[in-house]
Write a structure and sequence with these properties.
Number of helices: 12
Radius of gyration: 18 Å
Structural class: alpha/beta
Shape: globular
Family: Belongs to the DapA family.
Order of helices and strands: EHEHEHEHEHHEHEHEHHHH
Subcellular location: Cytoplasm
EC number: 4.3.3.7
InterPro entries: Aldolase_TIM (IPR013785), DapA (IPR005263), DapA-like (IPR002220), Schiff_base-form_aldolases_AS (IPR020625), Schiff_base-form_aldolases_CS (IPR020624)
Strand content: 5-15%
Helix content: 40-55%
Catalytic activity: L-aspartate 4-semialdehyde + pyruvate = (2S,4S)-4-hydroxy-2,3,4,5-tetrahydrodipicolinate + H2O + H(+)
Length: 310
């Protein structure tokens, strides 16, 4: 784990929800995962979140998830945190995966709300507490009701924040009022999981992001936080706005972020490989649009960097 700092949240500020690279025949590509992890850290990521939504957790096995944690932890060493996605629809299975991730070398856990069965809030709370009690690792709660069908309600968050190992939230609830309510009354570290909210959540007390788009442009997204921290709020706003074309194409075009990330990474000659069914690869038109937006952001970043240096 990266060394603690009073200025840096436990998991860092700029985290990438990393894709899980596969070989052309669909097998886990651990060499590719290490290369991608090293690139992301070199370009400004404080942490890597593995086997989340973007990491295709529904279609990877428990043994693949553990192998991925071991490989990435070995690659990045103490330069970045490694947070393992371990959530499932079953509490017992989630606990098993949490213990497996801890043994494999993870620094923290990302635990999604149990999905499909739509448990009531008391059951949601009990689920997270059981996972937190089972492992010695710190937990980030993953609140993404659009996928799970169940919200972690703010009042539930307030109670869960009392557990010493529940330390963070990946916020994909699209409820800025609810998020601010919890942030104002707890020490939970809030990370936006929605790239369009990077600056918005950071400005009202969030600690950073867990980003899918960072697979392609880690340095450009980190620059939003760096500008804000330096007091350059106009620069932070400009960088957020410059990123929006690519963010929209990757996250709001009707294709999953995993699909768009792997399409762009592949076009740039970076590890990613194919997606696993039922996902399907992006078409040529979508990929060309992603490349065009990527290049536009890269050029805008060069102009911004030149202006700052001048």
């Amino acid at each position: 784990m990266a060394p603690p700092s009073s200025a840096l949240p436990l998991f860092g500020r700029a985290l990438c929800a990393m894709v899980t690279p596969f070989t052309d025949d669909g097998l886990l590509d651990l060499d590719g995962a290490q290369l991608l992890a090293e690139r992301l850290v070199a370009d400004g990521c404080d942490g890597l979140v593995l086997s989340g939504t973007t990491g295709e957790s529904p279609t990877t096995s428990d043994s693949e998830k553990a192998a991925l944690v071991r490989a990435v932890a070995e690659a990045v060493g103490d330069r970045a945190t490694v947070v393992a996605g371990v959530g499932s629809f079953a509490t017992r299975h989630t606990v098993e995966m949490a213990l497996q991730a801890e043994k494999a070398g993870a620094d923290g856990l990302l635990v999604v709300t149990p999905y499909y069965s739509k448990p009531p809030q008391d059951a949601v709370e009990a689920h997270f507490l059981e996972v937190a009690d089972a492992s010695g690792l710190p937990l980030a709660l993953y609140d993404i009701p659009g996928r799970t069908g169940t919200r972690i309600e703010p009042e539930t968050m307030l109670r869960l924040a009392e557990h010493p190992r529940i330390v963070a939230v990946k916020d994909c609830a699209y409820d800025l009022m609810g998020s601010q309510k919890v942030m104002s009354r707890t020490d939970l570290a809030y990370y936006t999981g929605c790239d369009e909210f990077i600056l918005a959540l950071y400005a009202v007390g969030g600690v950073g992001y867990i980003s899918t788009v960072a697979n392609a442009v880690p340095r450009q997204l980190r620059a939003i936080l760096d500008a804000f921290d330096a007091g350059d709020t106009d620069g932070a706003r400009r960088r957020q706005q410059q990123s929006m074309e690519l963010i929209e194409l990757m996250m709001g075009s009707g294709l999953p972020g995993t699909v768009t990330s792997k399409a762009l990474l592949g076009s740039l000659g970076l590890p990613g490989g194919p997606v696993r069914a039922p996902l399907r690869p992006a078409g040529r038109e979508a990929t060309d649009g992603l490349l065009s937006a990527y290049e536009a952001l890269r050029q805008a970043d060069l102009v911004s960097a030149g202006g700052e240096q001048g």
